[in-house]
Design brief:
alpha/beta; about 30% strand; three-stranded mixed beta sheet; Signal recognition particle alu RNA binding heterodimer, srp9/1; four-stranded mixed beta sheet; 2,3-Dihydroxybiphenyl 1,2-Dioxygenase, domain 1; 2 helices
């Protein structure tokens, strides 16, 4: 059996702002009109992130993208250009530093509603073959 994660729904206060920010940082397409009530970000041919506007309390969540070093550098450049604070460790204060793990690069930042984003170049969940 082959299973692929097709999409995620992320609750936010402003779905358009959240979708636009993530799409710009990752340099991927998005849609303000979306499908139904969602503002989708087309992360890849096989994954869409749907932002959904919620009026109530928003549960904080963590999302990680594994990318190649050149993409990491480009995304980090866009994070810096946008003036978004970032950090080298998941629970650290914003130190605007790049972390390292298993020979790779890693950075964390928070979306305005508190969701935590991570980019890394070497997965700690799935070591390279």
């Amino acid at each position: 059996m082959t299973i692929h994660l097709d999409h995620l729904l992320i609750p936010v206060r402003d779905k358009i702002a959240a979708a636009k920010q993530l799409a710009e940082l990752l340099d991927v397409p998005w849609s303000s009109t979306g499908v139904g009530p969602f503002a989708p970000v087309f992360v890849s041919d096989s994954l869409t992130i749907d932002f959904d506007q919620w009026p109530g309390p928003i549960p904080l969540q963590h999302y990680c993208f594994r990318v190649q070093q050149a993409d990491f550098d480009a995304i980090l450049g866009r994070i810096k250009a946008a003036g978004i604070p970032y950090r080298s460790s998941v629970f650290a204060d914003n130190d605007n530093q790049i972390g390292s793990y298993n020979g790779g690069s890693i950075v964390y930042w928070n979306q305005p509603d508190g969701h935590q984003w991570e980019i890394l170049t070497v997965s700690y969940a799935r070591p390279e073959a």
